[in-house]
Amino acid sequence: MKIIQVDEHVSLRRDPDSGNEKIQAIVDEIIADVRKDGDEALRAYTEKLDGAALDSLFVSEAERAQAYEAMETKTVEAIRQAIENIRDFHERQRSESWMTTKEDGTILGQQITPLDAVGVYVPGGKAAYPSTILMDVIPAQVANVGRIVMTSPPDESGRLHPAVLVAASELGVDMILKAGGAQAIATLAYGTASVPPVDKIIGPGNSFVALAKRAVFGQVDIDMIAGPSEIVVLADDSARPDYVAADLLSQAEHEERATAIVVTPSTMLAEKVAAEVERQLEDLPRAAIAREALDTFGAIYLTADLYEAVDVVNSLAPEHVEVLCNEPFLYLGKIKHAGAIFLGENSAESVGDYFAGPNHVLPTNGTARFSSPLTVDDFLKKSSIIHYSEEALAENSEMIASLARVEGFEAHARAVEIRHKKDVR
Ligand SMILES: NC(=O)c1ccc[n+]([C@@H]2O[C@H](COP(=O)([O-])OP(=O)(O)OC[C@H]3O[C@@H](n4cnc5c(N)ncnc54)[C@H](O)[C@@H]3O)[C@@H](O)[C@H]2O)c1
Ligand SMILES: N[C@H](CO)Cc1c[nH]c[nH+]1
Ligand SMILES: [Zn+2]
Fold it and tell me: So what does this one do (predicted)?
């Protein structure tokens, strides 16, 4: 890995639109075809792009049963424990409707309502992501979303990965569509004869999925445009180089565009981590992907001290930051911009990716400066509640009318005043 003396302008922000024009044109055509031809277009694109000629667009009961047979019991048990941890964490995010009453009879409040229908995209091109199903579906269920449709691309035999089916079945998701890419996103957004449309689409995916989500935004809501995985390790002399290297590789193996960075004031640690990464790459099954990611987007940044290291972390605003320093809790509050903060040497990012409870759908590409992990709130919407008594309106109508007139809205002013002219009918 490159060891770089830090300058002031480190950034994770990449131009999300660069080189996307060709993909956008393909995505736009797919969306238009699905809007026009519905299920027929969905089937045709699934055959063309995923090589699957489907008998049914949906997963059957028999396929679910076969998926359980294909899974090791200990993996099913691990899924169940992860579900419990993730549900427990998200239950704490519930927000309640509220109302407040004033002496003059005014009642104000906020009514919270779950979304009626949500579509969950589960990526399936290069790898299977049962963990992402848990992270997307559980907060929706905690929010009491009315209807959940899951979709994932099938393999050439028309099947979904058994772990994906088991994760979905454990959560009770009963509508699972066999479709991927832009055609799946268009189907969820606009609906077809066999798939009713949803109100919001959740879930990560490749560039076809991301651009399709961006294109249908407005017709439906979307969670975010999730970019490639990112890890930044803030480390001092006390960090174990083998742990740091292992954690960098854990995210570099996701894909060639993943980012894995160390920020440290310790030259000795930097050199040891670089050597350890090479050693651990030797027998890593996805070494080619991880190496390309590290060569392109990996770095070990050397800083003057830990204060500067924290500044660098904040300017990167990464998806994940691990604090592998003496007394890691001292850094809480100082790290302001990060999707998730992992504290201490036993809190490998993998713990959060699969199991701990917090959501692994997190802001990427520097967007942790202004956005947050996926939460239960993403599946809820709020309506304001306003009730004015006769007394409250009488007391305040003059002020309301004057605010209306200063904006030039006479009808607004009269709508308040008419309520005091009892003789006018
Ligand atoms: N941030 C997160 O939490 C998180 C979690 C899981 C996965 N991911 C990311 O999701 C992505 C998954 O990508 P993937 O490719 O494995 O699966 P995917 O399901 O996103 O994409 C597969 C689909 O892409 C479409 N496609 C592929 N080539 C096409 C072409 N030439 N023309 C039109 N459509 C085409 C096909 O319809 C196919 O079904 C990765 O980038 C991964 O890192 C992120
Ligand atoms: N690290 C990914 C989010 O960046 C989530 C994930 C899913 N599976 C393994 N990891
Ligand atoms: Zn991961």
Answer: Catalyzes the sequential NAD-dependent oxidations of L-histidinol to L-histidinaldehyde and then to L-histidine.
Q: Could you tell me if residue 407 is left (phi over 0), alpha (psi between -120 and 50 degrees) or otherwise beta?
A: alpha
Give the model's pLDDT for residue 227.
Answer: 86
Mean pLDDT of 361-384: 96
3-15+227-356 has CATH 3.40.50.1980 classification: yes
The pTM score is: 0.94
Q: Domain ranges in the chain?
A: 3-15+227-356, 21-222, 388-417
pLDDT of 358 higher than 90? yes
Atom 43 of ligand 1 has which residue's CA nearest to it?
A: 228
Q: Are 318 and 339 in contact (CB under 8 A)?
A: yes
* pLDDT value at residue 423: 57
The answer to whether 3-15+227-356 and 21-222 have equal CATH topology is yes
Pocket of ligand 2 contains residue 131 by CB under 6 Å: yes
State which of 12, 79, 131, 361 you would mutate to test the pocket of ligand 2, scoring each by most atoms of that ligand within 8 A of its C-beta: 131
Q: Which of 179, 183, 151 is nearest to 31 (CA)?
A: 183
- Centroid of ligand 3 to alpha carbon of 251 (angstroms): 5
Give the single-character DSSP code of 62: H
> Which residues lie with the beta carbon below 6 Å from any ligand 1 atom?
26, 49-50, 123-127, 129, 132, 153, 180-181, 204-206, 208-209, 226, 228-229, 254-255, 360-361
Taking the C-alpha atoms of residue 71 and residue 166, their distance in angstroms, rounded to an integer, is 8
Topology at the third CATH level for domain 21-222: Rossmann fold (3.40.50)
